[in-house]
Design goal:
13% strand; nine-stranded mixed beta sheet; alpha/beta; 458 residues; globular
Length: 458
């Protein structure tokens, strides 16, 4: 009996080892499949995790495009997580090394997640994606994107000509005016800053100030200041400004650009009374009611103020931004929404296919229908015209038809810098407008801030 028992024990032990070995083989096979998935080999069943900032564009487009992608790729499931605080929601996953596969979240989001990934170089490079042909088209994907977008710091944040972020919708910003007033009175839109200030007398004749802005949100001043820097000094000066070169603030370009704000402040009738204390809704309503000739804003202006009171016959007109030389084109500032694939994404190749899918004509139209916006794709404005307000369409069309647009995104500040230069820059606007600070003092303050940043950059 003891001999039989020993044999049975040995037999069971052998069976257990065999089953364990089989189980390990299966686990190894699963791990191998995971490795293949991560390497981009398509399987019959894949899941894609997409995190979306749910702001003014909503999330309806993302839900619909996910369904379309699933239909085009049988066996694939796209999970959309949309939330106004998506940055805070995905932060723990990013820290844990299990981020979503695709993220739509701008650099300026208060969570700081995208800025943090920029500093840590936490993006998958997308240069190869844009070098490839667009989906079902015989044209490189990069050639479908509006000129200058992929080269900007929005998409190429390290200045190495490599693309790490993909453009989504874009906004166009500049000066607005009452088109009806200008047309009926035969007033020509100003093409230079000299023309602009010359209209102060015309403004007086029509019982209004020349200019107002969103006093409690002085960042709107960037919509004239950044194009002014480009107009005066070209891309070289703009790069100095956006990448924290302290010497920029010692240049004539910087002082001449800041002089626009100082001249508005010191010229009688130029600044609408009470402007500095007004929030964006109050100043924009005053403008629409005929209290000023011009105001800075973006292509969302008409939709945002749809229910606001206005003077009789008011019609939104977009000027762009005057240049300093009459031979130069009108300018505009653009901001571009960003999408990216975290470097630690589980399904990077499938994520790339999803991004490529977003640039198809069907997707651009769908986005126009649900988000009421235009993607940063050449010809997008005509594809989505029926879903845009008239003024929005005219703004997008102006950029696609020759108005020179530049991006003005400031580079991320290095770790250890406890000041945000952009905020400091525009926080001084009220002091200048109240004639408590000169343009020279403004430039000196920015020189000090930039010097601190530059020391960390070194």
């Amino acid at each position: 009996m003891k001999s039989i028992s020993r044999k049975l024990i040995v037999l069971f032990a052998a069976l257990a080892l065999l089953l364990a070995a089989c189980s390990n083989d299966k686990d190894s096979s699963k791990d191998g499949n995971k490795d293949k998935d991560k390497a981009g080999d398509k399987t019959d069943s894949q899941e894609l995790e997409v995190a979306v900032f749910q702001g003014g564009y909503g999330d309806a487009y993302w839900k619909e495009i996910a369904k379309m992608f699933e239909e085009a790729n049988p066996g694939t499931t796209v999970n959309i997580t949309a939330n106004p605080d998506i940055g805070e929601l995905i932060r723990p996953k990013i820290i844990a090394g299990t981020p979503p596969d695709v993220v739509y979240l701008n650099q300026t989001d208060p969570s700081g997640v995208t800025q943090g990934l920029i500093k840590e170089e936490g993006f998958l490079e997308l240069t190869d994606l844009f070098e490839e042909n667009a989906l079902n088209e015989d044209v490189a994907l990069k050639d479908k994107i509006l000129p200058g977008i992929l080269e900007s710091v929005y998409m190429s944040p390290y200045g190495d000509e490599k693309i790490y972020m993909a453009p989504y919708n874009y906004n166009v910003m500049g000066l607005w005016y009452n088109k009806t007033l200008f047309d009926e009175e035969g007033i020509e839109i100003p093409k230079t800053w000299d023309d602009f200030f010359a209209l102060n007398e015309v403004a007086k004749e029509h019982d209004r100030a020349l200019f107002t802005y969103q006093g409690a949100s002085p960042g709107y001043i960037e919509e004239i200041l950044i194009p002014a820097v480009y107009s005066l000094g070209g891309q070289e000066s703009l790069d100095q400004m956006l990448t924290y070169d302290p010497e920029f603030w010692k240049s004539d370009v910087a002082l001449d650009a800041l002089a626009i704000v100082e001249e508005i402040a010191t010229t009688e009738n130029a600044l609408m009374n009470g402007t500095v204390a007004l929030d964006h809704t109050q100043s924009q309503t005053s403008f629409m009611q005929g209290d000023s000739m011009f105001i800075p804003n973006g292509n969302w202006f008409e939709g945002e103020m749809e229910e606001a009171p206005r003077e009789e016959g008011f019609e939104f007109g977009f000027l762009g931004v005057p240049a300093f030389d009459a031979n130069d084109p009108l300018l505009a500032l653009t901001s571009v929404e960003q999408m990216y694939i975290p470097k630690a994404a589980a399904n990077p190749e499938l994520a790339k296919e999803f991004l490529k899918f977003l640039y198809t004509e069907e997707s651009v139209k769908l986005n126009g229908e649900f988000a009421k916006a235009a993607m940063a794709v050449d010809g997008a404005s005509d594809l989505v015209k029926e879903y845009l307000t008239e003024s929005s369409y005219n703004v997008y069309k102006a950029v696609e038809s020759g108005m020179y647009a530049m991006s003005g995104n400031f580079a991320p500040v290095p770790t250890g810098v406890n000041v945000e230069p952009r905020e400091v820059l525009f926080d001084q606007v009220a002091s200048v407008m109240n004639k408590e600070m000169t343009k020279e003092e403004w430039a000196d303050k920015m020189y000090e801030v930039y010097t601190k940043v530059a020391e960390k950059l070194e």
